Amino acid sequence: MKKLTIVRHAKSSWKYDIGDLDRPLKSRGIADVKVVSKYFKTKYLQPEIVFSSLAKRALETCKIFLENIEFSYTNVNVSTEIYDFSGEKLTNFIKTLDNNYDNVMLFGHNYALTNFVNTYGDRYIENLPTSGLVIFEFNIDSWKDLKPGKIVELVIPKSLRS
Question: Which domains, from first to last, does the chain contain?
Fold first, then answer.
């Protein structure tokens, strides 16, 4: 059995005239990822390994999330393959994960994440919102054998706000 938790980066700012890789988070995005990570911490075990896109907004989301679940940010692996919007590179990345890891977390981007959910999950979602989190369980022994699995939980920040 393999478990995968995917997190879409938090809401980012378009305020600055900078490249896509350098966009920072908005204050609402920071608040949302804090709420989602605190919820995650109360219900789920920490991942064995974490991967993030190299984009600033994904790395900032990852850092805030991991601080809240008390997982060392120094153990984050940054990958250019997760900076993907179609989903092909993301899926290929997941299929090449080391089989020694049964519980993996990654921080990435849309449309790749929504596409992944709808291809490998057991239910359809219109869109994975910013700071949204999906936990999958796959009945496989090897990541290269990735096939549709079960969505254990779908966390939408809006549903956690008070």
Answer: 2-160 (3.40.50.1240)
Q: Take residue 138 and report the two structure tokens written for it.
A: 């796959």
Report the pLDDT value the prediction gives residue 161, as an integer from 0 to 100: 77
Q: Is the peptide bond before 111 cis (omega within 30 degrees of 0)?
A: yes
CA distance 30 to 27: 5
Whole-angstrom CA distances from 159 to 11, 94, 129, 156 are 16, 28, 11, 6
pLDDT tens-digit map of 93-139: 999 999 999 999 999 999 999 999 999 999 999 999 999 999 999 99
As a 3-state breakdown, the chain gives helix, strand, coil percent values, each rounded to 5, of 40, 20, 40
